[in-house]
Amino acid sequence: MIVQLTVQQLKEIMYEVITTSSTNTLPQYESTVTERGTKLIGLRELSKHIGCGLNMALKLKNEEKIPYSQIGNRFHFYSNEVDAALLHNKK
To answer: Is the pLDDT of residue 46 over 90?
Structure first.
């Protein structure tokens, strides 16, 4: 089946799909606060927490200077544990 649309009709359809679709946004993960601190999911949240770039966050993780766990392809960190590890490594 071939459908002919004007440019304006195509724009209207695209606008409607973009504004009403919930799949066009990245998934949001809720932060969980425990005695271990706030749960940081992913390197982006880790880098924001410690105030560094993604490459430095990845380096800290790879060198095992901060504790983490991995669930699927996501890395999980806890803010209190990260802070304590960074203070310990700084000495």
So the answer is: yes
